[in-house]
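Handout, section 4.2: multi-component inputs.
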Amino acid sequence: MELGVLDIVKWFELSNEKIQQNKDYLTSLDRPIGDGDHGINMARGYQETVNKINTVDYAEPSAVLKDAAMVLLSKVGGASGPLYGTAFLKMSVAVKGMVVLNLRTLTGGLAAALAGIKQRGKSELGEKTMIDIWGPVVDYFTKGEISSAGLMEIVSSALETSKETMATKGRAAYFKEKSIGHLDPGSASSFYIFEALAEVIKEKE
Amino acid sequence: MKKIINNPNQVLQDMVDGLIAANPQRLKKIPETFVIARADAPVQGKVGLVSGGGSGHEPAHAGYIGKGMLDAAVCGEVFTSPTPDQVYEAIKAVDGGAGVFLVIKNYTGDVMNFEMAAELAEAEGIQVEKVIVNDDVAVEDSSFTTGRRGIAGTVFVHKIAGAMADKGASLEDVKAVAEKVVANVRSMGMALTPCTVPAAGNPSFELAEDEMEIGIGIHGEPGIDRGTIATADEIATTLTEKVLEDREFSGEVAVLVNGLGATPEMELYIMNKKVHDILADRGINVYKTFVGEYMTSLEMAGCSVTLLQLDDELKELLDAESTAPAFRM
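Output:
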């Protein structure tokens, strides 16, 4: 498997489609625990990201990821903006200089993104945040053999597990036990992002 | 919703324009941003001070820009943290070669966005340090925060760190004195009525005609106790006692009785009288008192009480000159 510039662009385009389709759903997840704007913010940020990366001819995936990071940082807002912005910025740095990403370098990029999210959010696995999705995905990639079907299986089960977790970080933490059974909006948007990545990988199978 | 606005989605732009128009000699807007800076920024050789956060807390933070206080303030949408690119622009605008110091109120979004901006600036070779203000003793975690919230005590951090930077102190020394203020300042607030974010159109919570909420946050985040409205003396006692329980105050203190937006100065002075009585009973001397609107929450009715433990260094810095429109000394 090798992903080039166009594949990474495609990843953001597919992510954007899913986020636009589920904008109201993401917002409804955010309403009981936050300020009810996650879907609106993500939809705005991803649309602007796609608009931006479609206007540039990139030499390498790293440059796509960097532009995407900067747009997400400035257009999403709240806590999700810096979290996703950091993730793709760290990923961009990790894969700098590579014209195509193979499994090993893509894994390195995703691991750097995860480390960035943990550092920015001062959070770890099992605290009902998007790390509950990113963590298992990185573990799966690290095993050295992946498939689109396998990735979907991992993210689906990670999302289920996260739903039944009690929030101890982020805004939902204020609601403690009441957060059990409620889906974390950041985990839900991360789910769509990896669903999109699985589709990109599927085209290579 | 009844407000003097043009368009709920335009309030930030309109407010910033009006603020600049009110202080054309003192303030400037950094083009293409909602960053307001000292007209003479960057001041060469001086540590630049940047604060900011969601709007709706006026005069915080842009009213505290001036010689002896902030060099720039980043204005986010109402009750929404500004984005890292905006904070980054502020850092660049005030960097006079001695580094930039960020004063951040402890809200999850603010901390993340300011820290991200600090990393972007450091990547460009600008030295950045920060302090996180968490003076609100009311609650440990809230819907907006991990840990305690930053409220009116932040203004003392602006004043004292700003005076330190104005003396030509190093970034390290500015940080040290800012941390000293944070360690010595405590606040607690209460509300009689909620407030309405213009873009939302409805109050963020409800309080009955005869109800008040103790310990409420400056975005309407839940407090610790909701009950029947009490007298000013009882409210002042509740707030002040809670602050005094949290840390030992002795010798000399500064007092800040802050209005949240819709409370008349008359009521704030009634509060202040009782706060002074309580402190006198405990043998604590009030060195300086500030009464008025310093950290508001749109049109919320209510107030907060802040105490700052002073020593000689903090007294001198508190007394130093400031030309900031909302804190002239």
